[in-house]
Amino acid sequence: MGEPMVTALGHAGLRIDGEGFRLLADPWLSPGGAFLGSWFPFPDNSHLLAPELLDVDAVVVSHEHLDHLDLDLLAALAPEIPIVIPRYPSTIMQRRLRAIGRHRIVVLDAWQRYPLTGTDWLTVIPEQCPMSHDSAVLVKVGDRSVLHTNDARISLSQARRASTEVGGPLDVMGVQMSGASWHPVRYEYDEVERERIATIKRVGKFKAVTRLVRQIEPRFVMPYAGPPCFLDDDLFELNSGLSPGGIFPDQGEALAWLGDRIPSQAAAYLLPGDRIRLADLSIVHDPHWAGFALDSGPQERRRYLSAYAARRRRAIEAAWAANPEPGPGLADRFKAHFESLGTLSEYFLARIGMTVRFVVEGPYGGVWDAHIGPDGVVVDVDGGSGHADYCLTMDGRWLDGVVTGRTRWEELLLSLRFTARRDPDRYNDYLVGLLKHADRAALRAVEAFEAARDPEDTTAVTVGSEQVYVSRYCPHAGEDLAETGVVVNGVLRCLGHNFEFDLTTGACLNARCDPIVVKDATYAEEAV
């Protein structure tokens, strides 16, 4: 084998070659895209899809999202190639892999090492809160190391442990700096409000990554994975680069941000096929991209995406064909499915406590209200008359895929093939968690994690000229507020997920979430 090398595959995909192994990490190259034919890698990475790329010894996949878990590609690999995945409370990844004929599945616990050679290895670093099943992957390659964060929001302490595990500073650190959210892009806001919210989320993500990089000081940083592109006519105008702002910054914007804030940090973005030599961290550019530039402007971006969409027209049409208009009984199928969700977790139901309205368009649609409370879920298929806290509007063909088991809820939400509104306009993580997991073991893990938090563990933040003591860990996902908490206009914002807390009452201001503990300076004096 040749010299140790990291090859960018587009989106978050990497190929890592050591002196005795060949590894694919989260490869996404199949031409069908992901999430009901709505997401595609940007830029087009199809020139890499060749037998020599897939001639590897192992594949590691960080989580179940289909822009990372490329089922078509994995199904085509030689059967003896192991697929390495993290252990999560849910076994959905194992089940999906077995369904495509993959039987060599290696499930790793956090920090457990999987040997690649006698001295090289990989391990997985799951997010601390089990509400999100995301993991980073750490690979030891000779005397070099690669921390591939994927979509995981790993903590500073986890990143520091990664450095300890490899015996020194990290050499290459791939960082995810683009969001993957349907909020606010599919919400019924006016353009000014939509961009205001998008800016907060985009900047919050950038700041969180910048803090981590500044503290860890890897030898080389590579921003990746964002944005996906949207080639279906129905979604095309959501693409980044067609107008300023938005929630999906591209790799160039992410790199410029890091360059402005940490000018001493060596960093670059890689296009699909570009490579990093691990020996000296030099970059070998793929000649495929001669004449291509991310910053060529909106007209050139539109031209490129339009041509890309034409090449993927059959894949988009296939996604629609795979989800035909529903037959009779859609309302009954929806009612049975959604009421079954109410049997999974009393803990989640109590923290949702709302009515979710579904406006289902097309044949056999209607207005259906799901009343979610601590005693269960009751669906009224003659809904629409009372107040609804959430309202989701979608074509029945996409909803039928969920209630019949073709599609998971989070795949539908990430497809952006719906619109939404909230009243009051507050995020409820438990509703999203119930839908995206729909798994009793996964929901129980969240309940156990939240029950184990110590509200008396505090950290100090500065408000004006005074110190205030607040809960050490964010009640949402357990982020360490000593690392991720910032005070903005008298409000504590957790950069992990942009939850905001009133520093007088502790109440969460923008989501359904338990409050933080807030104590004044006398608390520290009394504790002495």
TrEMBL record:
One Pfam family of this chain: Rieske
Superkingdom field: Bacteria
Keyword presence, Iron-sulfur: yes
Keyword Iron: yes
Keywords: 2Fe-2S, Iron, Iron-sulfur, Metal-binding
Every Rieske domain range: 440-528
GO molecular function, one term: monooxygenase activity
InterPro entries (alphabetical): Metallo-B-lactamas, RibonucZ/Hydroxyglut_hydro, Rieske_2Fe-2S, Rieske_2Fe-2S_sf, UPF0173_UPF0282_UlaG_hydrolase
Protein name: UDP-MurNAc hydroxylase
Native source species: Kribbella solani
Organism taxonomic ancestry: Bacteria, Bacillati, Actinomycetota, Actinomycetes, Propionibacteriales
